Amino acid sequence: MKIESHQPADEAEGATSATIGRRGALLGLFPPLNAREWRIFGIAATAGFFDNYDNALLSLALKQIQNGFGIAEAYLGGMLSIVRLGYLLSLLISPLADVLGRRRLLLYTIAGYTLFTALSALAPGAKSFVAAQCLARAFAGAEGVVALVIIAEEMRAGVRGWMIGLLGALIASGYGFAAIAFAFIHRIPYGWRGLYALALAPLIIIAPLRRLLPESHRFEREHQKGDHRSNLLEPLVELIRFSPRRLAMITSVGFLVSMGNNPGSYLYAKYLQEAHHWSPAKISTMVLLGGALGIAGNIVAGRLSDRFGRRVMGSLFTLLGPLFTLWMYTTPNDSVIAAWILRLFFDTAAATIVSAYSAELFPTSHRASAGTALIAASTLGGALGLVLESVFYGETGSHWIAVRYVTLFWLGAPLIMYSFFPETAGRELETISPEIASAH
Fold this sequence. Notes:
single chain, 440 residues, mainly alpha, Growth Hormone, Chain: A, 74% helix, globular, disordered N terminus
């Protein structure tokens, strides 16, 4: 079977692309894509939605989960850190996409994620809950990497950042779904446990849809060259061997962003309830209304980075995220709402560009492995940030002061991005990252 026979021809898809393009132009959100590209995008976008839902629940319902298991304040950061470390286990899963294919792995990961989400709802104690959440993160992290790789490989160079941003925005809507559910936490049977169980029905519906996803053109092309690996860790080893500088750049940014960002992200609902005396319903209202503005940062970043460049836009957005976090955890009044919205906007905008870089800087044969390395670095940074938050809490007696201290580490990321990252916007992946086999 020839690869070329699967590639969409511009002539054959022209009418469809033009129709979609005209509709998208009216909304100002969507670029002109053909039918195959929209199908790929729609199915790939389901990955990550429920990871955001899970993360949102752990943040929004943290106080209720803490009370349900009787977790002491001093151990809160450690518990969150262990859950976050679950993403490290995706190191054992995501590289399989460079061996078995993007489509097959996306089908496998949803099964594991569904299982451990169910076990989170049924956990009898804090240890079993943390273990289930940790393993759910492993499969969720792998899902997110594969979805990003598929979008990067299948979308055209001129709109690649735009579509990665749109992917991030749709995935982030899982947070809004969690916010709606959290508003009814006192009415839903079994409280926070019921919220985790609520995610199972949509997951079961989504699983069959992924069978309609075609394999990536670029992966099929590499696979037909006869580059079959027997060692599942070989892509990671080759990545470290042949792309050490680029790998160091992307992982250092991911490490610092997560280190400074995670404490503020996990503790904000607790902060609003305890420091500002907000009710769960008020927090949900802010997340729903303000979050709709905040997650637009994904789309704005994607479009602006396609037009003005990843490096400048990424550095700017990565700088503004921690500044608004510091404002949020400092203000004593309702300006916390504006601070939270702007923090979310620039955080998601920066994440879109970092995600784009993680896919663009590396060749097809190692692209999923590079995404996994970024997740690993982000996981370690996030876990360290949560541990440091606990340490600073012990010294200051205030979670909110501790969050501000840890946020300062975030400021190192834009310096690295602006100083060392190349420009990738508008370039074909093969010109940015030639295959290792041909380059060496």
